[in-house]
Amino acid sequence: MALTLRPAERDDTALILAFVRELAEYEKLLHEVEATAEDFARDLFGPSPRVFCDIAEWEGAPAGFALWYYTFSTFRGRQGIFLEDIFVRPEFRGRGIAKALMQLLARRCVEEKLGRFEWNVLDWNAPAIRFYRSVGAVPLDAWTMQRVSGEALERLAAD
User: What percent of the chain lies above the pLDDT cut of 90?
Assistant: First the structure.
């Protein structure tokens, strides 16, 4: 197998942005991408990183990525990992790359004694849902994600 997984480096910021844009295009959300390579450089490689990224390469070619951060569960009294994005370029799919990225994060959870590993998936993305079920993920149907952003975030902060 010609798969290499490695932590992202500062020189990868343009690649990370390209992966994000490709994922957004697949999800029909490209119009929502505002991030820049500079944003990733600041938050992944600044003095106090709060988000992390692993890069998958197949025979030296960039094949995919996983971007994640630590969370905290008050019920478990432990940190966990939230997988913000995982993406494998179409030409590299079917080679176990996404599973390898998820296994890397699962091992981190186990080694660091973290309480859980979580992520979201669009409800229409049947291939991803099938894959997630195959690795043991279970849906949290009783929970719905809530979001405040843009003008609503500004109003909430000002009130």
Answer: 94
Annotated catalytic residues are 132
Closest by CA position to 56, among listed 23, 14, 21, 12: 12
Q: DSSP assignment, residue 90?
A: G
C-alpha distance from residue 46 to each of 18, 52, 108 (Å): 20, 11, 22
pLDDT value of position 99 = 96
Closest to 13 (Cα-Cα) out of 48, 51, 44, 49: 44
> Which amino acid, one-letter code, is at 52?
F
Query: How far is 159 from 67, CA to CA, in rounded Å?
Result: 33
Q: What CA–CA distance (Å, rounded) separates 143 from 145?
A: 7
pLDDT tens digits, residue range 13-58?
Answer: 999 999 999 999 999 999 999 999 999 999 999 999 999 999 999 9
CA dist list (Å): 115 to 74, 89, 126 = 10, 30, 27
